[in-house]
Design a protein that fits this description.
two-stranded antiparallel ribbon, 4 strands, single chain
Length: 172
């Protein structure tokens, strides 16, 4: 609520290292949520270093995951999300075995994104605090989006494309 957010902001402005959580769909959504809570955008730039967003995905079971060839549709999706050519031939899928309780997954890990509150982001908060504008300004930071981080974990065989699609909207 407003009171708690304001207290956290004031603590950060006095030099305390503050970690807090907000419920939003993305890192950039954190800025809008703070403004919705009544926080002055001028204070956000001074109080914050970074805003992170995360979602948890299930990790493929190392005992039973199975490698297979990518489909043309998957290849196109991965290239679009990554925004550059990516050499991929195969992905891993969940199978299921005794080690994972026949689910194909064992454990969880985060897919994350972040936006550093640099001078450009701070200026955007003051002049045009729309999420789309802040995202545009923050692109120069070269921090992967949550979708890109998830795809990197899919390509590394840590999670499956099906699991990532269950947790994130990959088609926007």
């Amino acid at each position: 609520d407003h009171e708690v957010a304001e207290t956290a902001i004031h603590a950060a402005l006095t030099g305390h290292l503050v970690f807090s959580t907000l419920h939003t769909n993305s890192a950039v959504g954190g800025f809008a949520r703070l403004v919705d809570l009544g926080i002055d955008p001028r204070m956000i730039g001074s109080a914050f270093n970074i805003i992170l967003g995360q979602r948890l995905v299930r990790k493929l079971c190392d005992v039973c995951k199975k490698e297979r060839q990518t489909t043309p549709e998957e290849h196109t999706l991965i290239q679009r999300i990554m925004g550059k050519p990516v050499a991929i031939d195969s992905l891993c899928d969940a199978v299921g075995c005794e080690a994972c309780g026949f689910s194909g997954y064992k454990g969880r890990m985060g897919v994350v994104e972040g936006i550093r509150v640099d001078d450009a982001v701070e200026e955007a908060l003051l002049t045009d605090p729309r999420e789309s504008h802040i995202l545009e300004v923050a692109q120069s930071q070269d921090i992967p989006s949550m979708q890109q981080d998830g795809i990197m974990k899919v390509l590394a065989g840590i999670t499956s494309l099906d699991e990532l699609s269950r947790v994130l909207d990959l088609h926007t």
